[in-house]
């Protein structure tokens, strides 16, 4: 399966909170967001240790600000997951979850639950992953977070795909598409179209698979992706 690029800056989940915080807190949140983006660039350059140092320094700067700390724990979880340390990722996401719940931020809670679900998914604990994804989906829907809803629907679809429950996978992938289109998330839309094509390919419906792969091409060109497909498209492990 094609791995979705982990975009920590988007996953950080602090933008909606900055405007509602007092000035000192908002300033800290802003600096933390900047640090997360800087860390992501360092990791993308192949400097994971530098990225971790940036995140740890930013966490220290948060002091006791719970909103700031929760966002940094999410970012540290994303970093640990991206660098192959799921156990540490789980610990960081759980810290974030506790803080988001303490401050009553439902969007942040859903983000942390999604992260925990991803870790269990990566560890092969599919049913546990589904439990966390389902809670995250419910919260995202309740608070009207269309981006979070689309991400979680795609994650659930991926789990069912891995479990061989292809019709259920299709159901969730198809539910994610309208939200992705509505938000103008062309990359996410293309990836989900490829996922749907891959499911139809697995089901032996080659013509239908081809239709979805072809629908994904314009969006891929828009975002500048160039996929080198060897065999049926899908997520890389």
Can you walk through the features of this model?
With 237 residues, the protein is mainly α. The chain has two domains: 7-132, Tetratricopeptide repeat domain (Serine Threonine Protein Phosphatase 5, Tetratricopeptide repeat, Alpha Horseshoe); 145-225, Tetratricopeptide repeat domain (Serine Threonine Protein Phosphatase 5, Tetratricopeptide repeat, Alpha Horseshoe). Helices cover 78% and strands 0% of the residues. It is built from twelve helices and no strands. Mean pLDDT is 85; it is low at 1-24 and 226-237.
List the helices and strands and how they pair.
Elements: H1 8-11, H2 15-18, H3 23-44, H4 48-62, H5 66-82, H6 86-103, H7 106-122, H8 126-143, H9 146-162, H10 166-183, H11 186-202, H12 206-222
Please sum up the structure shown.
The chain is an all-alpha fold.
Rg, rounded, reads: 18 Å
Question: How many domain regions?
Answer: 2
Instruction: Point out poorly predicted stretches.
Output: 1-24, 226-237
The residue fraction in helices comes out at: over 70%
CATH architecture of the largest domain: Alpha Horseshoe
Number of helical runs? 12
What percentage of the residues does DSSP assign to strands (E)? under 5%
CATH fourth-tier homologous superfamily of the largest domain: Tetratricopeptide repeat domain
CATH topology of the largest domain: Serine Threonine Protein Phosphatase 5, Tetratricopeptide repeat
- SSE ordering: HHHHHHHHHHHH
Averaged pLDDT: 85
C-alpha end-to-end distance: 6 Å
Overall geometry: globular
How many β-strand stretches? Answer: 0
Structural class: mainly alpha
Taking the sheet with the most strands, its summary is: none
The CATH class of the largest domain = Mainly Alpha
